[in-house]
Amino acid sequence: MKFYPPHYLLVFSLCMLLTWYFGEFSPKYLLLTWYFGESSPQNLLPIIFGLGLIGFGFLLAFNSIGKFIRAKTGVVPFSESTTLITEGFYKYTRNPMYVGMNSFLLGLLIILNNLINFIFLIIFFFIVRNLFVIKEEVQMEETFGEDYLTYKGKVRRWL
Fold first, then answer.
1. Which of 20, 21, 50, 90 has CB 3.0 to 4.6 Å from 112, enough for a Cys bridge?
2. Residue 39 dihedral angles phi and psi, to the nearest 5°
3. With contact defined as beta carbons under 8 Å apart, do 96 and 64 qualify?
4. Contact at 8 Å (CB) between 132 and 5?
5. Across the chain, which distance is largest between two alpha carbons, in Å?
6. What is the 3-state secondary structure (H, E, C) of 114-153?
7. Alpha-carbon Rg of the chain, whole angstroms?
8. Domain regions of the chain by residue span
9. Which of 107, 150, 143, 142 has the alpha carbon at shortest distance from 17?
10. Residues 48-93: pLDDT tens digits?
11. Nearest in space to 94 (alpha carbons), one of 146, 129, 56, 69
12. Pairwise CA distance, residues 21 & 102, whole Å
């Protein structure tokens, strides 16, 4: 079975939840809590902000998937691309699905308020960047040529 970004998202989300849940029983975690402070949100504002980032992540990802489905082009990484999509969120980032996934993890990180989980966000970002984004960009250049290079020159990779 191949692992795609949503699989990594699920794994790292579970890792964040497990680290938060079981972390309070760990001696290392107790030391970090003593040094950094309590690991649960202190008020409602971080929870609301985190939920907003999670919602924004879902909006980016599912809106972008909808654009692919309407254009009848491959959504799965490295599948055949028949249309270069430059509408919607693709006007602002070349990778709104991945930005949405990172936004989801950032929101979860804020809600859980556990600095150790920042490691999972960073690892997820580099896995997606190195295993998918860079290779997909090469594929897009080969498939769409000058049109993609023009688009790439106008729109940033992330934000």
1. 20
2. -105, 10
3. yes
4. yes
5. 56
6. CHHHHHHHHHHHHHHHHHHHHHHHHHHHHHHCHHHHHHHH
7. 18
8. 5-154
9. 107
10. 999 999 999 999 999 999 999 999 999 999 998 999 999 999 999 9
11. 129
12. 21
